[in-house]
C-alpha cells in the first residue's frame, strides 16, 4: 500500500479528553515518548533471553537471572534493590528425553518430538514400552476405562480454534495437562502423552506444569507436537502392533532456595503504602522465556525507569517484583503475599504482566466497584495507546496471592492473544518472537496505569 | 503463565447484544467458526506467496498471479469469475543493483544494501560515483542547496517512533520517497539515497513508489537499510574523501496490459447493486507480497467463501476484486471506477484490506453520517472479534477511485499497525510474517461487515 498522504504535526497526537484529564493525558503522552524513543525494555529482554536463557526455579540459570534482575533494576534507577528469599520447587528435566513408535512392521518411523511435563516423574533410564490408548477427552477415557490398564494413555484433545480470546481455549484444555496423568493412573495407565495446547502448525511440543493426585500412582507425563500427535493417531488406527517407547529422566528434587528480585522507588508522601508491579523471572527450561515472562519483567522494570527518567515522584512506594517461581508453584507470589501480611504492609494496588509481550488491548482487573469505576473513567487516557478494553475480570497468578491475602485491588496487562499459544511453553518462545513496539506499548500503559492509580486510588 | 482455570462451555462465546441484534450476532459467530476452523485463507496465501512470489504490475509473475486468483475465486464458490483488462505501468528493476562507499582511505568497506525506488530511472550499466550530501530533512536541503550540485543527496530522515498508529509515521515521512528525487534534482543532485521507512532494527532496504516532477531532470533514487544509513552517515562525518558508487539498472518501459481479477456472488434480490470487496494482487518484486497485499486478497476471497459455505444469499451482488496495480499507479482501481461510472453501475459499498494481515482493531471509513451511524451501531456485534474502533476516517487506495467517481461509501480494514513497517516493501514481507489467526480474524470481520451492510445499507 502506498496512499497519498500529507505531512502532519506531532501535536495532533494528544487524545481528546476532559479538561480535568488534560494534565494526565500530557503525562501519558510523555511516558509514551520516553518508552517508544528508548530501547531499554527491548535491550533488557535481549540480555535476559540471550545471556541467561531458560531459567526454571532452582536452576543455576535462575541464579544468573536474579543477578541480571538486580543489575537491570539498579540501571533503571531504583532507590533500593534487594532479594527476598523463598523456597521453590526443584524439578529437573534430566538428560535426553526420547520417544518413538515401535511396531512389528519394522518400518522406519521418525522419533516423536516430546517434552516431559513440569513436575512429572520420569520413566527411568531404561524407559518404558507399552501399547497406546488414544482418547479424545475425559469422557472418552471413562468410556474406555476397562482398556486402560498397562497402557500409555494418549490425550488427543484438540486446542479449540473458535475462541477469539485464546486464553479461553487454554482454560478449556489445560485440565488435561493438570489432571490427565492421575485420571489415567486411576485405571492403571503407565504413562500419558498429551497433545500440545497450541494454534501453531508446526511440531514443537508445549510443556507446562502438572500435578499428581496422591490417591494414585505417579506416572510419567509428556507433551507431544501437533504433527507427531496426528502421526501417532493415524499410526494407531492402521497398525495394531504399534506401541510407544518413552524415556524421560526428569525428577522432583528437594525444595531449594530462590528469590523474588525487588526494586523500589520510595514514595514521596506515603512511603509505607505500596503499589506492586511485576512479572515472573522464572521460565521453562526449554526456551528463552521471552514472552513468558521475560516480557513482563522488562515491562515492569521499564515502568519504574520511566518514572525515574521523567523525574516523576510517586506518592506511594512503587515496588517492582520479579517473582521467583510462577511456572511450577507460584511460590514467589505466595511468599511475597505471606510477608506482606505478616508485616501488616498497606498495599494499594498490584499489577502483573504475564500474558505475553504483544500489542496491548487493555487491562483485566479485580477490585471494588468504586475503584473499577475510576479505572473505567481512564479509558479516554489509555485508549490512544491501544488499551480500549478495561472491563474484563482478571488478575495475575503471582499477585493473586496478595489479592487473596490482603484484598489488594489487582490488574493484569491484557495483550492481544492471537500469537501467544504459538510459542507458550515451547522451544520457540525466544527473543525474536517479541516485537519491540508491542512490548514497549505494554510497558507504557503499565507506567500510565501506575501513575493514575498513585494519583487517584 | 499457567493460571488455575476451569473448563467452560462454548455457549458463552456469544456477545451481549440487543434483541434485534441477536440473529446478526449468531450469524457473525457462525462466520467466525467457519473462518477459524478452516485454513483456506492461510493456505491460499501460502500458494500465492510461495508459488507466485513477488508480482509487480506488468511482470510475468503478475500473469501467474491472475491465474492463481481465478482459480482461488472459483474454488471459493464464486458464481462468476472474470478478468477486467486495464493498462498498467511497466517498471522493471533490471539486473544487479549495487552501492558501496569509495574512499581514499582504501580500507575494506562492506557494500551498502540498497533497492531502487519504484518508477525510478537507473544509473545505467556504468553506474555513477559522486560525493554525498547528507540532509536531515527538506528544510536542511534548502539550507544546503548551494552544496547540492553534482552530489548524491542522502535523505537521512528518521521514521518517527512516537506515533502509536504507525501509518502516521509513514504519512510524516513518505514525502521524502515521493518527492525527494525531484527536490534534490532541482539543485543539481545526480541521485538520491533514502533512509528506509521502518521500525525494524535490521538492514533491509524498503522500496516503494516515487514520482518525478517534469520540471527537473530524472535522477536515480534508492532506499538504504537503517544500519547502512547509520554507517554511511558516520563515515561521511569522519572521512572527507568518502563518495558513493551507485549502480541501478531499473527503467520504466511502455505501459502494458494487466487485469483486475473479479469474482462475484450474484445478488438474490438486487443483482444490479454492488458491494465491492478487495485487495491488490500486485506487490513489489523483492518480496512475497504477503502482508502487502496478499493478505487483503485472500481475506476478500475468504469473505466470499464464507457466504457460500454458510449458504448465505446476499441481496446485493458481492464482487471480490483483486486489483491489478496499486503499488506504482493504482491503475486497477482507476479502471474499475471508470467502468463502473461508464456503465452506470449502482455501488452500495466498497471495502478494502490493504494495511497488512495483522490482528484487526476496527474499520476506518468514509460515508454519509446516516451510514456511519449504522456502522457505529454494529460495534457490539464486531467488538467480540477485536473490531472496537469504527470511528476513524479512511478508505483504500484502490476503492478510493470508486468513492471519488460515484460517492460510494467505503471502508478499510484497520489492523494493528505495530509490525507493519518492519516488513512493508522489504524483502521480509513473506508468508512466514503472517499469523494465521490474525489473518483469519480480519477476513471474518470483513465477511461480517459485508453481511451487515447488505442487510441494512
UniProtKB/TrEMBL annotation, chains A, B:
<dbReference type="GO" id="GO:0005576">
    <property type="term" value="C:extracellular region"/>
</dbReference>
<dbReference type="GO" id="GO:0070573">
    <property type="term" value="F:metallodipeptidase activity"/>
</dbReference>
<keyword id="KW-0333">Golgi apparatus</keyword>
<dbReference type="GO" id="GO:0005764">
    <property type="term" value="C:lysosome"/>
</dbReference>
<dbReference type="GO" id="GO:0004180">
    <property type="term" value="F:carboxypeptidase activity"/>
</dbReference>
<dbReference type="GO" id="GO:0006508">
    <property type="term" value="P:proteolysis"/>
</dbReference>
<keyword id="KW-0865">Zymogen</keyword>
<feature type="domain" description="Peptidase M28">
    <location>
        <begin position="260"/>
        <end position="440"/>
    </location>
</feature>
<dbReference type="Pfam" id="PF04389">
    <property type="entry name" value="Peptidase_M28"/>
</dbReference>
<keyword id="KW-0645">Protease</keyword>
<dbReference type="InterPro" id="IPR039866">
    <property type="entry name" value="CPQ"/>
</dbReference>
<keyword id="KW-0378">Hydrolase</keyword>
<keyword id="KW-0482">Metalloprotease</keyword>
<keyword id="KW-0732">Signal</keyword>
<protein>
    <recommendedName>
        <fullName>Carboxypeptidase Q</fullName>
    </recommendedName>
</protein>
<keyword id="KW-0862">Zinc</keyword>
<feature type="signal peptide">
    <location>
        <begin position="1"/>
        <end position="20"/>
    </location>
</feature>
<keyword id="KW-0479">Metal-binding</keyword>
<keyword id="KW-0325">Glycoprotein</keyword>
<comment type="subunit">
    <text>Homodimer. The monomeric form is inactive while the homodimer is active.</text>
</comment>
<keyword id="KW-0121">Carboxypeptidase</keyword>
<dbReference type="GO" id="GO:0046872">
    <property type="term" value="F:metal ion binding"/>
</dbReference>
<dbReference type="InterPro" id="IPR007484">
    <property type="entry name" value="Peptidase_M28"/>
</dbReference>
<keyword id="KW-0256">Endoplasmic reticulum</keyword>
<keyword id="KW-0964">Secreted</keyword>
<keyword id="KW-0458">Lysosome</keyword>
Amino acid at each position: 500500500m502506498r496512499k497519498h498522504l500529507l505531512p502532519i504535526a506531532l501535536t495532533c497526537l494528544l487524545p481528546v479528553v476532559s479538561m480535568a484529564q488534560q494534565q494526565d493525558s500530557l503525562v501519558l503522552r510523555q511516558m509514551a515518548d520516553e518508552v517508544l524513543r528508548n530501547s531499554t525494555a527491548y535491550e533488557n529482554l535481549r540480555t535476559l533471553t540471550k545471556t541467561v536463557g531458560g531459567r526454571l526455579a532452582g536452576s543455576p540459570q535462575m541464579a544468573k537471572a536474579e543477578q541480571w534482575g538486580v543489575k537491570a533494576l539498579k540501571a533503571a534507577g531504583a532507590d533500593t534493590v534487594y532479594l527476598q528469599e523463598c523456597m521453590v520447587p526443584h524439578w529437573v528435566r534430566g538428560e535426553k528425553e526420547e520417544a518413538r513408535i515401535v511396531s512389528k512392521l519394522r518400518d522406519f518411523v521418525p522419533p516423536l518430538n516430546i517434552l516431559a511435563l513440569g513436575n512429572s516423574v520420569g520413566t527411568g533410564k531404561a524407559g518404558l514400552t507399552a501399547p497406546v490408548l488414544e482418547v479424545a477427552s475425559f469422557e472418552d477415557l471413562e468410556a474406555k476405562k476397562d482398556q486402560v490398564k498397562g497402557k500409555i494413555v494418549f490425550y488427543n484433545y484438540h486446542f479449540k480454534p473458535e475462541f477469539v480470546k485464546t486464553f479461553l481455549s487454554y482454560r478449556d484444555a489445560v485440565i488435561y495437562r493438570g489432571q490427565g496423568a492421575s485420571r489415567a493412573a486411576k485405571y492403571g495407565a503407565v504413562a500419558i502423552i498429551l497433545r500440545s495446547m497450541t494454534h501453531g502448525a508446526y511440531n514443537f511440543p508445549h510443556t507446562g506444569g502438572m500435578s499428581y493426585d496422591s490417591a494414585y500412582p505417579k506416572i510419567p507425563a509428556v507433551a507431544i507436537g501437533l504433527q507427531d500427535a496426528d502421526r501417532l493417531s493415524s499410526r494407531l488406527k492402521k497398525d495394531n502392533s504399534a506401541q510407544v517407547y518413552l524415556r524421560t529422566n526428569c525428577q522432583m528434587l528437594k525444595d531449594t532456595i530462590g528469590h523474588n528480585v525487588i526494586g523500589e522507588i520510595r514514595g514521596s508522601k506515603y512511603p509505607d503504602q505500596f503499589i506492586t508491579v511485576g512479572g515472573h523471572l522464572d521460565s521453562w527450561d526449554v526456551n528463552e522465556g521471552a514472552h513468558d515472562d521475560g516480557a513482563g519483567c522488562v515491562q515492569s522494570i521499564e515502568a519504574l525507569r520511566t518514572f525515574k527518567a521523567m523525574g516523576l515522584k510517586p506518592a506511594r512506594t512503587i515496588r517492582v517484583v520479579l517473582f521467583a517461581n510462577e511456572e511450577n508453584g507460584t511460590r514467589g507470589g505466595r511468599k511475597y503475599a505471606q510477608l506482606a501480611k505478616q508485616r501488616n504492609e498497606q498495599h494499594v494496588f498490584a499489577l502483573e504482566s504475564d500474558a505475553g509481550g504483544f500489542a496491548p488491548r487493555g487491562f483485566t482487573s479485580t477490585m471494588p466497584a468504586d475503584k473499577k469505576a475510576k479505572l473505567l473513567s481512564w479509558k479516554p487516557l489509555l485508549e490512544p495507546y491501544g488499551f480500549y478494553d478495561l472491563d474484563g475480570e482478571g488478575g495475575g497468578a503471582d499477585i493473586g496471592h496478595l489479592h487473596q491475602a490482603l484484598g489488594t485491588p489487582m490488574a493484569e496487562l491484557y495483550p492481544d492473544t492471537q500469537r501467544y499459544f504459538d510459542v507458550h511453553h515451547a522451544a520457540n518462545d525466544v527473543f525474536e518472537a517479541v516485537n519491540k513496539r508491542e512490548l514497549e506499548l505494554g510497558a507504557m500503559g503499565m507506567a500510565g496505569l501506575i501513575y493514575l492509580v498513585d494519583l487517584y486510588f
